[in-house]
Each structure stands twice: as structure tokens, then as C-alpha cells.
Amino acid sequence: MLIKWIRLRNIRSYLSEEIHFPEGSTLLSGDIGAGKSTILLAIEFALFGFSTDVSGETLLRNGKPSGSVELCFDVDSKNVIIKRNLKRGKESFSQASGYVIVNNVKTEKSAEELKAFSLSLLGYPEEYLKKKSMPLYRYTVYTPQEEMKRILFESREERLNSLRKIFGIEKYGVIRANAVIVASSLREKMRELSSRIEDLARKKEELEETMKEISGTQERIGKMKPELAALSEKKQGLSKKLEILEEKRKRAAGLKSAISSYESAIAEKAELCESRRSAIEAISRKISVFTKKLEEIPAAEKADEGKLENELESISRELSLKEKSLAEAKEKERMLLLRKKEIEKEIAEEDALKNQLSLREKELEELASGKPGEEIEREREEKEKALREIIENKGRASLSKEESERVIAEIAKHKVCPLCKQEIKEDYKEHLKEEEEKKKKSNRELIESLSKEQQELESGIKILKEESKRSSERDARSNKLSAETDSIKKLLSEVEKKKTLLKGIGKEIAQMPKADAEREIGALKEKEAEQKKILKQARERNAGIALREAVSAQLSRERELLTSAEKEAAEADKAVSELNKRKIEASGELKELESTDKQWEDAKSELDSAMKREKDIEVLSAALESEASLKSRNAGKIEAEIKEKSKDKKRFELYRELEQMISDKFTALVSEMEKQVMSSIHYEFGKLFQEWFSSLIEEETMSARIDEDFTPIITEDGHDTSAENLSGGEKTAVALAYRLALNRVINDMVSTIKTKNLIILDEPTDGFSSEQLDRVRTVLDELGLRQMIIVSHEAKIESFVEHVIRITKQEHESRVLN
Ligand SMILES: Nc1ncnc2c1ncn2[C@@H]1O[C@H](COP(=O)(O)OP(=O)(O)OP(=O)(O)O)[C@@H](O)[C@H]1O
Ligand SMILES: [Mg+2]
Predict the structure, then answer these.
(1) Is the Cβ atom of 62 under 6 angstroms away from ligand 1?
(2) How many angstroms is it from 486 CA to the middle of ligand 1?
(3) Could you tell me if 383 and 461 are in contact, meaning their C-beta atoms sit under 8 angstroms apart?
(4) Which residues of 212-229 are buried (b: 16+ CB within 10 A; e: fewer)?
(5) CATH 3.40.50.300 boundaries in the chain
(6) Which of 19, 141, 196, 638 has a 20 to 30 Å separation from 730 between CA atoms?
């Protein structure tokens, strides 16, 4: 396999980059964290997908939702491109489907299918498909820089297991274990087969015995056949005879039943004859009775009942109409009388009403003589007006009186005029005081006279108010009385009208035609009684006529009955003599058939015994037949068993051979092969490891070898020591020698692997001196691989590789420098 190029999109520090790898040795150089190891991880991912060491989280660039790796390589003269896609999920990473292009033919594949494709293309074991790690690739092609030295410090067990897996030696153990399982299952099958075939000889004897018995039984069946034929012939003859006798027996039974039916018919007819005769007698007696009765009923003409009934009905109808109108007239009269009584009662109240009217008119006259209400009101209003004026005048006089009192008091207080500020003389003061006193006095007198007037007016107003109250009471009373007078007058005029009405009612009652109606009803009742009588007589006459008709009809019926009874009696007599004749004939024939029953019974018992014998023989023959068939079936079964057991015997022998071969030879052979393979690997590996260690550490006192478990043992100055105790550079030398020896041995031994030409080393020279680096060159040259990719910080390495790819990282984006 030769890697051509790789394309990265959103892988760790790469956004989008393509790196081309030439054939020969190539150095990937760059600062710490430049993106070198990323390329190597991406190659592994492109080939095998996710594993315990390569996950989506390690590969997909932080913050990017998806990314991809595309790897182009040549293998087996095919050009292959594998593309894998990565996706970031909510909680995990996944691989979307990708594709492969083989010699320009593209095929879409799922992640799983891509891995299967790579494994088969590179000749890696198929079982890696289900595994999460890729030890073969990781030990022989590419080991991550942190894991270079791990193999030195693993436990023996782990290391051996890893090596067994890489060299495919574990398969020998599996083969041995499987051989043990196969041998044990063969033994199990043999045990089963031997228990099945142990009775084979006995089964063969049993078959022979059964065959003999079958032929004996068939011989016995053959001997029974002639007797069966004779019996069948005899049975046929007897059956025919029985058929004839059966016919005769049927005839005799028919005759017997005919005779008995003749006898019962004769008895029946005789009885009929007897009954007819006594009927004739009874009918003759009835005829004489009816003839006598007919003579007793007189002949008369039939009356028309319907017409008479109609006449009666019309009389009754007329009568009921008259009675109804009379009753109505009486009811009307009663109503009129009632009304008359009511009116008379109303007229009788006339005097009382007139009396009430004159009383009210008198009271009204009295009420009209009083002082009218408006006049009183007018007088009261005038007096109230005069009172208001007096009160006002009184107020004014009192104010003026108070003013005079105030002036008098002021005059006494002041010596100087409060307005002109001039002195007021005493005499002037006196004069003013007198003037004011005069005013005061006249005002007091005025107030007194006004108060008197006020008192008079107030009492006058009081009296007028009482008078006004009385006058309005009088008005209300006279209003009420006027209304009452009006209604009494109305009632009186009503009474006048009633008087006229009363006269009308009296006239109406006098004019009612009651007496005529009662007379007419009496006449109609008489007429109705007469008509009823006529109808009754007519009905009686008609009943006599009907009875006469019924008796004569009965008489003619009885005469008909007599004739038919006489005819029946004669026919019955004739039938009796005919039946007697037939009975005699049948009895004669029956006598001739008397011996038939005996003959039939003899033939029947002969046939029964023949049939019984035939049945016995048949039963025996069928039993023998079923015995023979049972035995044949049994023989068939034994035969099949023998056949099966013979096959089992052959299988048993084959299994025995196989089991012996596996147990005695195969397991030993496998163990031997394993030993041989292991020892040759051990020898080859040990030799290379020793050589390359010596080449890398040119120290005469130090050598290295591997013990039987492939553990590196270092001898330093004659003493054995483990790798753990060595210096950093020495440890790197051991690890590198171990790794390179492993690569070479696997490539030599496992022929199918297609990654033989390629090695990828990530920082393989950690802690090496300058001379050691020169030796590395020699060792790598010795490996003679077609493609070698090395990652290193050592500037010296640049001098012995053919190509250098420089990688730098800026603003967290890795790029290849051209
Ligand atoms: N998922 C990721 N997304 C982005 N960057 C990442 C991611 N994982 C790792 N890196 C960064 O990518 C860069 C390249 O890492 P890489 O291991 O390839 O470096 P290197 O060149 O091998 O360095 P060294 O010489 O130290 O081994 C580092 O800075 C690393 O921190
Ligand atoms: Mg690195």
C-alpha cells in the first residue's frame, strides 16, 4: 500500500487542506501543535473508521457540525479513494455514509461497509470488523507517539496476547479447543449410535420369524375358500324358495284380514238395518201427531204489521211534539210570572223613594240660605291685607322710636359735634332731646293704637276662617244631596217604565193557548191507545199463520225422512247377503294355504344356519387376514429399522475413525505447528530486535534479547535488567528496535497483508543523541520500505529523508507550506 494524498475538512486544527505523499521517506515537520499527528490519525480513520483510539470527539474540529477525510492510495495495482464523513449530534458523534472509488468507479457505502472494504482490501483478518481496536495496524504500520513505549511496560500476559493476535497464533489454540469439542461431540454421537445398533442381529432374526408366520396364515386363508363358495350357492337357492313362500304367507294374511273385515262389515250393516227400522216407526208416529196439529190451527189472512206500526209511530210522534210545546209554554208562563213579581216589588218601593227625595230637596233649600263661601273668602283676604299693613306700620313706628332713644342717648354722651367738631350747647342739646322725646311719645301711642287694631283684625280673620270651613262643609253636603236627588229621580223614572212593562207581561200571560193544547193532547193519547190495540191483534193473527206454516213444513220433512229410512234398510239387507258370499269364498282359499308357515320356517332356519357358518368362516378369514397384514406391517417396520441401524453402524465406524484421528494425531499436529510457528517468529524477531538494538546503541557493554515471552531483556555489563530501568534515550531505542523488528517479522510471515511497504513513525527518536540519530538512518535504510512517513522535531532527520512536508498553524488553522 502506498499513500498518495489525504484531504481534510474540519479535522482538528485543519479547516480544509490536501497533503500529498511521495514514495520514499517523508518527514512531517512543524512546531508543537502544528497539526502533524492529526494527519496520521486521519489516515487511520479513513481506513478503519471509529475505534477505541479514534473517536469523533478527537477528530471533528471544535464548533463545526461536520467534517470529512478523503484518502487516496494504491494497493494491488488499484487506485483507491475512501471518503468518510463525520457529523456532530446533540450528544454524540456519528459517521454519515461515504464512498469508495476504485479505479474511477464510485460506490456509496455505510461506515461499516467501508471498514469491511478496507479490511478485505488490505488482507486484514475479517474478525477485526466486529472489534473496536486495530492492533495489527497499530503494531506494524502506525503507533501514536504516546504509545511507542507502551509495549515495553505492558504486563507479559497483555504483550503475549497482543502478539498472538498480531501473528494470528491464537487461532491454533482455537483450533485445538474446537478439536476437543468436535472429538467430544463425535464420542457423544458414537455413544448414541452404539445404543441404537446394539440390537441389529436380534432384529434380523425377528424379521425372519415374522415372514414365516405370514406365509402359514396365508395358507390357512386359502383352504377356507371352497367351503365359502358352496355355502354361497346354497344360500341363493334357499333365498329364492323363501321369496315364494313369503308371497304365499302374505296372501294368507291378506285373506285373514279380508274375512275379519267382512265379518265386521256384516255386523255393521245388520246394525244399520235394525236402527233404520226403529227410525221408521218413530217417524210414522211424528207424522200422525203433526197431521192432527195442522187440523187444529184455523186458516186466516195475513195482516200488514209494518203499515200499522208506521201509523202508530206517527201518532206517538205528534203526541210527543204537542207535549213538548205545552211544557215549553208552561215554562215561559212561569218565567213571566216570576218577572212580574219582581217588577211589582220594584214598583212597591216608589213611595219610599218619593219620601227620600222630598227630604233631600228640603235640606238643599236650607243649605242654600247660608252666606256664600266666595263672599267670606273675599272678606278674609281684605282683613289679612289690612293686618299686613298695620304690622308694617307698627314696625316702622317701633324703629323710629328706637332711633329717638338712640339720639337722646347720643346727645347726652357728646359735648362736641362728631361731624363739625364744634361744641354743642346745652340748651340746644335740651331742645333736641325734647324734639326726640315728642317723636318717641307719638310713636309709642301709634304703636299702641296699631296693636289694638291688629288684635281686632286677627280675631275677625279667625272667625272668618271658621265660617269658611263651615261654608265648604255645607257645599260638600249639598253636592252629595244633589247627586242623591238625581239618582232617586232616575229610579222614579225607571219605576214608571216598569209599570208599562208590567201591563205588557199581564197581557202576554192572559193570551197563552194552554187549554187548547191540553185538549189536543188528550185526543191524541186516545188515538194512540186504539192504534196499539189494532197492532196487537194483527200480531196475534200473524203468529197463528206462521205456526201453521212451520207444522206443515215439518210434516213434509218427516215424510222425506221416512222414505229415505225405508230405502236404507232395504240396501243394508242386500249388502249383508253379498258380504256373506265373499266370506265363504275367502275361507275356502285360506284352508288351502294352511301348511305355508311351517314350510317357510324350515327354509328360514336352514338359511340362517348356512349364513351363520358363512359368517364364522368370514370372521376367521378376516382375523387371519388382519393378522397377516399386521405381521407384514411389523415386518416392514423391522426391515426399515434394520436399514436405519445398518446406516447408523456405518456412521458409527466413520465417527470412530474420525475421533481417533482427531484425538491421537490432529491436536498433536496443531500443537506442533503452533510451536514451530512461535519458535520461528521468536527466533526471527529475537534476532532482528537484538541486531537493531545493537545498531541503535553502540555500547559494547550493553546488549538486548527477548525471553520466551517476548519480553525485552537488557544485559548491561554482564547483568540482566528490565527496560524500565534504562535511561530515556535507551528506552526509546528499545521501543524503536522492538517496533521495527515487529514490523519486519509480520511483513515476512503474514503473506496476505498489503501494508508491508509502509511504516509511519511519530516522534520515534525522543531523547536520542546526534550519533544515535545517524544510526537510526542506517536502521531505516535496512528496513528497505517503499514508503516511510516520519514525524520529528529533529532537524537532523531532515538530512536523511528524501522529502519534507512543512506544516504551520496560524490563528488555529493548520496549513501545508509549499
Ligand atoms: N477537536 C479539535 N478541534 C480543534 N483543534 C484541535 C482538536 N483536537 C486537537 N486540536 C488541536 O490541533 C492542533 C494540532 O494537534 P496535533 O496533535 O496534530 O499537533 P502536532 O503537530 O502533532 O503537535 P506535537 O508536535 O506537539 O505532537 C493542536 O493545537 C491541538 O490542540
Ligand atoms: Mg504530535
Answers:
(1) yes
(2) 136
(3) yes
(4) eebeebeeebeeeeeeee
(5) 2-150+760-817
(6) 141
To test the pocket of ligand 1, the residue of 10, 36, 45, 812 to mutate (highest count of ligand atoms within 8 Å of its CB) is 36
Ligand 2 center–CA 789 separation, angstroms: 13
Q: 341: how many CB neighbours lie within 10 A of its CB? A: 10
Q: If 0-12 CB within 10 Å is exposed, 13-18 middle and 19+ buried, where does residue 138 land?
A: middle
Average pLDDT, stretch 739-754? Answer: 84
Q: Is 35 in the pocket of ligand 1 (CB under 6 A)?
A: yes
C-alpha 358/C-alpha 551 separation (Å) is: 101
143 Cα–ligand 1 center, Å: 17
Query: Is the pLDDT confidence value at 508 over 90?
Result: no
Dihedral pair phi/psi, residue 33, rounded to 5°: 75, 15
Alpha carbon distance 100, 282 (integer Å): 135
Determine whether the shortest distance from the Cβ of 792 to ligand 1 is under 6 A: no
Please work out, in degrees rounded to the nearest 5, the angle formed at the alpha carbon of residue 470 by the alpha carbons of 465 and 471.
Answer: 95
CA atoms of 765 and 27, how far apart (whole Å):
13
DSSP SS3 for 479: helix
Q: Cα–Cα distance between 812 and 70 in angstroms, integer?
A: 21
**H or E segment and range at residue 214:** helix 200-223
**Res 686: pLDDT:** 93
- pLDDT tens-digit map of 284-306: 888 888 888 888 877 778 888 88
The predicted model gives 583-598 an average pLDDT of 85
Residues 6+ apart with CB under 8 A from 286: 558
Per-residue pLDDT at 417: 62
Residue 808 Cβ inside 6 Å of ligand 1? The answer reads no
Which of 341-345, 353-357, 502-506, 787-791: highest mean pLDDT?
Answer: 787-791
CATH 1.10.1200.10 fits 357-498, yes or no: no
Confidence of residue 419 (pLDDT cuts 50, 70, 90): low
Nearest protein CA to atom 28 of ligand 1, as residue: 33
Question: What is the position in ligand 1's atom list of the atom closest to the CA of 58?
Answer: 1
Give DSSP secondary structure letters for 327-376.
Answer: HHHHHHHHHHHHHHHHHHHHHHTHHHHHHHHHHHHHHHHHHHTSPPHHHH
Find the 792 Cα to ligand 1 centroid distance in Å.
15
Residue matched to cell numbers 338712640:
406
30 lines ligand 1 (CB under 6 A): yes
Residue 759 pLDDT level (bands cut at 50, 70, 90): very high
The amino acid at 673: M
**463-484 per-position pLDDT tens digit:** 999 988 988 888 888 899 999 9
Residue 455 pLDDT: 93
For the CA of 31, the closest atom of ligand 1 is: 25
Domain spanning 2-150+760-817, CATH class: alpha beta
Supply angle C-alpha 68, 69, 75, rounded to 5.
Answer: 150
3-state secondary structure of 14: strand
What is the per-residue pLDDT for 421? 66
What DSSP line would sit under 364-412, residue for residue?
Answer: HHHHHTSPPHHHHHHHHHHHHHHHHHHHHHHHHHHHHHHHHHHHHHHHH
Taking only the tens place, the pLDDT of each residue in 317-350 is 998 998 998 888 889 889 988 988 998 888 888 8
- SS3 call for 737: helix
Written as nine digits, the cell of 112 is 461499516
Q: Is 88 in the pocket of ligand 1 (CB under 6 A)?
A: no
Pick the residue whose CA is nearest to atom 16 on ligand 1. 35
- In the chain, CATH 1.10.287.510 sits at 357-498
- For 424, the 3-state DSSP assignment is coil
The C-alpha atoms of residue 36 and residue 12 are separated, in whole angstroms, by 11
Residue ranges with CB less than 5 Å from ion ligand 2: 37
Is residue 758's pLDDT more than 90?
yes
